[in-house]
Structure prediction request, 740 residues.
Amino acid sequence: MFKFELIKKDPCGARLGRVTTGRGSFQTPVFMPVGTRASVKGVTPEELKDIGADIILANTYHLYVRPGHEIIKGLGGVHRFMHWDKNILTDSGGFQVWSLGKMRRITEEGVSFSSHIDGAKSSLTPESVIEVQEAIGADIIMPLDECAPHQSGRPYAENSMNLTLRWAGRSKAARTNPAQALFGIVQGAMFADLREESARATVEIGFDGYAIGGLSVGEEKHLMQEMLAATTPHLPEDRPRYLMGVGTPEDLVYGVSEGIDMFDCVMPTRNARNGTFFTRQGKLVIKNVRYADDPAPVSDGCGCYTCRNYSRAYLRHLYMEREVLSPRLNTIHNLFYYCSLMKEMQAAIEGDRFGEWRKRFERDNGSSGL
Amino acid sequence: MFKFELIKKDPCGARLGRVTTGRGSFQTPVFMPVGTRASVKGVTPEELKDIGADIILANTYHLYVRPGHEIIKGLGGVHRFMHWDKNILTDSGGFQVWSLGKMRRITEEGVSFSSHIDGAKSSLTPESVIEVQEAIGADIIMPLDECAPHQSGRPYAENSMNLTLRWAGRSKAARTNPAQALFGIVQGAMFADLREESARATVEIGFDGYAIGGLSVGEEKHLMQEMLAATTPHLPEDRPRYLMGVGTPEDLVYGVSEGIDMFDCVMPTRNARNGTFFTRQGKLVIKNVRYADDPAPVSDGCGCYTCRNYSRAYLRHLYMEREVLSPRLNTIHNLFYYCSLMKEMQAAIEGDRFGEWRKRFERDNGSSGL
Prediction:
């Protein structure tokens, strides 16, 4: 059912591809807007389609805690629940459990934790995470992993990486629904040889696609780049590669140039709610008083609904007044910017001009190629 | 420019009419969604049109305080500012100033008050309120009035009513833009003879339409009904009648049966944000646990976007999780319900069956005709 076609590879390493699931196809490189609780904050599925989103991400942990996977299953699955008929990927909850810090305990069996809502004791195992995700019903699901802190020393990082590998095997064995694609997750903290070992061993178990986890978790940028470089050569060309939780527009461009096909990040949606817009000329902080009477759109020439219809002055007014429309209009622009960036990169790879495109992007953006 | 045609009058007293401004026409009876700060909370102008809204209300006081009427004027007026090209009515700010309680002082000249935001001293006079509304640029504007408390004793109510009349005359004299319709406001607290006197004297000054203010401010329902009955016989048939700040669906039906043409109220939008839906069978409080796994729409057969696409279970989930999409989807339903109710009443008057329609409404709604 699940298929990945590598359509074209740029000399720089950027890949144009196509992912096909039972739900439908989408081109890569792709950005997946985050809909943590089965809702991309403030926007409807129709708007997501207008924005150009092809696949979104939802969080297993959050949906497991509330409203509960059995309720979603009973209502016909997450697509029907949230009224989105395109692809959905659910993460495993590993990252969220990791974020709980002292509220969780990791053993060979799995993770036990206290709910972030009411402190109720709960646990997740590789098997239960698959079961929960089968109930939720996303098109692409992820195995439980341990996301080791970036400061991990070598013994911890190595043990953690090996635990994630054992969990990966159990996850694959636990899977009962072949209609859902299951990706493997490469870990290894900030050790290049562990990253390589993790990549090789994960590929040996064999998954529909490969994710790179534990990056963009606070480490310095050059470390993320080194870990990426240590990983991708050991991933098969004919499977999609997903860089989890990344990142800024610059990170996406960098990732694509390193052969990454899929990305997700809360940055465009969270920054939107905080009044920060992404534009080709960098960030625009709408609360700045200079925009109080500015009739221009956030970004000249931007084709999003927000830029076509509203001035910076109005968007500032909505933001300052905490109007409910503010996060929505801001989110529409930022997601449009992210999704358009991916489509531009697809076209550039297609047209054999990705390297040139990237140079112009970095010049416009005032970044120096990281 | 401004025109009101009385198309048909039902034997019960309900009126079908048409208001025409330089901006366009709409049928009455009409409900005006409230967009306090030049935004109907959570919904776009396109959605308001889908909902069936023909005219919305914005608040002069709020826009005067922030972002300021000069900024709105500089940006081409409130329609362009908020991207809504249909009719807008701005209230005078009198009710908001009244709500400030101890923070305001009323004199013959006008009202001085401390801003609800930073306590800065400011003032409004009948003349400045017209100037502010001319800058904002709505299609229908209102004169400054004093909204006397419903518990007012007779001397206070009489003085206040007379002050409002003098302010009405000054407002009419201050007006410079004939393209904007100016309505008069009838006051008189809970004294039927003062209501009659106010109506007669306001009509004598002469306005494009007549509003009834100072009702639905905490008084008992029967008092509102008595004041309405004391007022409407003294208003001209050939001008629209606007019952300010009213009300529940039952109030709207009652008002229409008493010959009211225009209504506004925060109830559908505010209740939506608090998770309460209006339906033909009464209110539905979405947080109720019985809806946790309910696949039904809020209201069977409702044609709104929310009911066509989302279950009670999902709407409850969004509400419980305080998702930004929640107030939006809830608002769409409630405004659709209100606007559809008005259109049903228009059709019933048109078809000479308003009395019958009203009986069925009251039966469905479990109300006893108030």
User: Anything to note?
Assistant: Residues 274-365 of chain B form one domain.
